[in-house]
Amino acid sequence: MIIPPLPTPFDQNGNLDAEAFRDLAQAIEPHVDGLLFYGSNGEGVHLTREERAAGLAIQTPRKPAMVGLMEETLAQAAIALSESESLGARVLVTPPRYYEANLGHDGLLRYFGGIADMGKAEVWLYHVPANTKAQLPLPVVAELAKHPNIGGLKDSSGELARMAFYASQKLALELYTGHAPTFLGALGLGAKGGILAVSNLAPKPYKQMLALWQAGKVAEAQALQAEVEPFGRVLAQGGFVLLKQALRHLGLPGGYPRPPYPNESPVWPTFKPLLEEFRARGWTVG
């Protein structure tokens, strides 16, 4: 499966544009296998409780949905978990980060296990150290994988050694990568697909690569990975600011980042030709 972490559109005054959020989801959904709301590219940490609820209330996904949960305590997580219930969605959970040094392995087990014990949604672990600056140690992952309500893992680190560990331990988790430049490598180490920022813009080549890999056409998949690598790498450098700028360029309602983040990315001059090449090949959504 190829799943995009949808951006959350704000208007130029920094207000949530819920209708644009709905329209963006509906524009992208036919091209992908599911939707992730409030992931790293969804700026979930920039939203109030009321905005999070309003943004989800207007959604009507027809394909499997996930909701990012990026909280610091179990009490906060319980509230965010309730917000996701309206969509019947899985939750993608990052480790607490502000006081990470005080948690230790046992604290991480209590946090993720506590959310899973609430039983309101299937829990997926989310390792994205570039954003959280927090670690999800491999022994903790192995222990949490035994919980009956923890069903998956998204690893956006790009560290293929971690994917190799997951495979070697035969963890009872669905494994997904969030790192487009190493997408094929992750598939080779057991990932079932990708939850990729690039799939907001151009899911087609990544769906094709997944299909080639599943069909055993390894050389063709390798050639395609080499071809699309710059697109994923440069988009990662620009993050959600560049992603929203690219969506606007394609005529999609990506909106703007919430202040103080800029409307335009310094990486745009490098990324724009790559985006135009993908559009000329019929690979983009817009």
TrEMBL record:
Single Gene Ontology MF annotation: 4-hydroxy-tetrahydrodipicolinate synthase activity
CDD domains to which the protein is assigned, alphabetical: DHDPS-like
Origin: domain of life: Bacteria
Pfam families: DHDPS (PF00701)
The entry's keywords: Lyase, Schiff base
The keyword Chloroplast appears for this protein: no
Binding site for pyruvate: I195
GO biological process terms, semicolon-separated: small molecule metabolic process
Residues of the active site: Y126 (proton donor/acceptor), K154 (schiff-base intermediate with substrate)
Family statement: Belongs to the DapA family.
Entries under PANTHER family matching the protein: 4-HYDROXY-2-OXOGLUTARATE ALDOLASE, MITOCHONDRIAL, DIHYDRODIPICOLINATE SYNTHASE
Name under which the protein is recorded: Dihydrodipicolinate synthase family protein
